[in-house]
């Protein structure tokens, strides 16, 4: 039975402020079973009993609501902790993704630089090969020009030699014709008896 001389415990208030569950000094059952001493000209017992019953009902409802709210608070705190954990995981994931993105960008940048260097090296090598091939072709062209000049000179010399030979042959043929004409032409200014018999035979023959 509740003893009105007892004072509330200070620790209960501290626990209530911290949201912790604590034991009440007066329960709904204490209110329903509370008995008062009879005093002269005291309160009406029926009214006091009815009031205590109503207070006990409200008190019990308040305790149930408090317990429900406490459970709801625990559930919300659990959800909040889950959200915080999700937030931590999300931040960690974002940091990992950012680091991965930075690594990919850095690797892509380095790869692009390497590709550009390789392309420039291949371009320089191709240019050098092209230049060397051009020089080789130019040398071949110069060599062919020299050969052509030599061939032209040789042909001109051959043509000159053939022309000289042909002229010589023509001269020889012309001389032979002249000699034959002179041999067959009669000599009228010489007497017949003075002619050489052999020469006369050549003319007759």
Description:
- The chain is an all-alpha fold and 205 residues long.
- It has a domain at 10-92.
- It is built from four helices and no strands.
Fold blueprint:
Layout: H1 10-17, H2 28-33, H3 45-184, H4 197-204
Descriptive tags:
205 residues; 4 helices; disordered C terminus; mainly alpha; disordered N terminus; rod-shaped
Q: Overall 3D geometry?
A: rod-shaped
Specify the number of helices.
Answer: 4
N-end to C-end Cα span: 195 Å
Order of helices and strands: HHHH
Gyration radius from CA atoms, angstroms: 72 Å
Mean pLDDT: 78
The portion of residues forming beta strands comes to under 5%
Low-confidence stretches: 1-19, 200-205
Based on secondary structure, the structural category is: mainly alpha
Percent helix range: over 70%
Biggest sheet statistics: none
Strands, count: 0
Could you give a quick summary of the protein structure above?
By secondary structure, the chain is an all-alpha fold.
